[in-house]
Amino acid sequence: MEKILIVGATGSTGKRIIEILNNSQSFEPVAMIRKEEQKSIFEDMEVQWVHGDLEQDDLDPVMKGIDKVIFAAGSGGDTGPEKTTEVDEEGAIKIIDAAKNGKVKKFIMLSSMGADEPSKHPKLEHYLNAKATADKHLRDSGLNYTILRPGALTDDLGTGKVELAQKLDGQGEIPRDDVAFLLIMSLADPLVKNMTFEAIEGKEPIKSAMIELSQGN
């Protein structure tokens, strides 16, 4: 069973990922927590946790025994530039470097649609610039990777159906539930390997959409 480090485990999307992986026969989630009081959340779920702070710590120790990483942390588009830089750019780069040092098998990054063209989104430009810098660092790291750039995240129930492409026309929304499933599906080694792709709610089941995207159809 592969151990999967979830960075951003206490966030809305991170918690969904943990819940799904906790019922998996193939993957064992390991929650990265920043505060001591957060450990009870995961102890109650019988989920392993490890302490790590994207803004402060040397993160090499958190990679001990880890096979793959899902980065689902984020300051959010409403956060000021300083905090965004600390978490979404510098923090992400720090954990990518730690993953490389730890020789993890795959790193899956939750990014954002628009990160390829930050200047087209003035209100979110600082956030998207940070995401773009982190994405590039991951692509250049030599790690096997997947970068998922979803549209606007909603708390609606997941539909299990999506529209995926390396570049989608326009904007759209997608439930966090479906984003969590896309990130987890990306753990499978043949799927979306060394790919960056965008995702919004659509009409095609997640599994077949990811297979088609991986095959370049």
UniProtKB/TrEMBL annotation:
CDD domains in alphabetical order: SDR_a5 (cd05243)
A Pfam family annotated for this UniProt entry: NAD_binding_10
UniProt-listed Gene3D superfamilies: NAD(P)-binding Rossmann-like Domain
InterPro entries the UniProt entry points to: NAD(P)-bd_dom (IPR016040), NAD(P)-bd_dom_sf (IPR036291)
Top-level taxon in the UniProt lineage: Bacteria
NAD(P)-binding domain ranges (all copies): 8-190
PANTHER family for this protein: FLAVIN REDUCTASE-RELATED, UPF0659 PROTEIN YMR090W
Protein's UniProt name: SDR family oxidoreductase
Organism expressing this protein natively: Salinimicrobium profundisediminis
Taxon lineage: Bacteria, Pseudomonadati, Bacteroidota, Flavobacteriia, Flavobacteriales
